[in-house]
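Each record in this resource describes a single protein on a pair of labelled lines. An example record follows, reproduced without changes.
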Amino acid sequence: MIFVHLFRFFLTAIITEQWLLGAAHCYIIRGKRIDPKEMFIVAGILDYQDKSCKWRQVRQALEIHLHPKFKEKQISKNDIGLVKVEPFEFNLAVQSIPLSGKPFPIDEEVRCTAAGWGDTDRMSFNSVLRKLDVIAAQSPKACPGLQINQRRRVICLVQDEGKGLCDGDSGGPLVCDGEMVGVAHQVYLETYKNFFAPPPDSMDCGAREIVHTYMFTCPFLDWIKSYVPEVPPQPPHCFYRRNSYHPTPDYRRINSFLLPFLNQSSVNH
């Protein structure tokens, strides 16, 4: 899932036939919110330059909603946004991703999946969707340099040189155990605090000592549900320690995550 505004490309995730969830900063240009009439969302494709793909579906945005407490150019400051479109037709290539309504374990590494069209090299242009197996965590070790109040709204990827978020991946989903738990937010160096300014040369995609962050969707479920009633309710607590949490089985849970036609092997991203 990708959205296009003039010459800008970002990711967003389909959560129902008519609603998309992404990063709020993607919908801001030079301090102003994008006009929905200028935004087009393309679904059902692997290569967004392939105009002949039979699965391709294009929708114009109808509404854009940014979290009311979103603050541009600040780490973990409610970087969540919703886009409403005319309903997509679900098929083998176009599906929704279920939002997780469960808390996330603290100080524990979790195997997850990320995907995006981001450029893997500053000197090259990428138009093909890529999938990456990652390890996600919510801990001081995984999110170095962030204060507790910042960490409670983000999930970080465990550093793995050569892998991680790349330029253009913002807004993409982090999927753990078949459910979406995060929205691609930003990357930072622990000693580099101007998060949304042009990065220094040392912040190449997948470079060592870069921290990759996702906005954690759980703390925002109540806000999302105010627009999208189908999403699960926000739990009393969005984090838990493994030995103290005993969830009630949810037999309606969707256990599989569909990224149609993707190569199942990991790729550097």
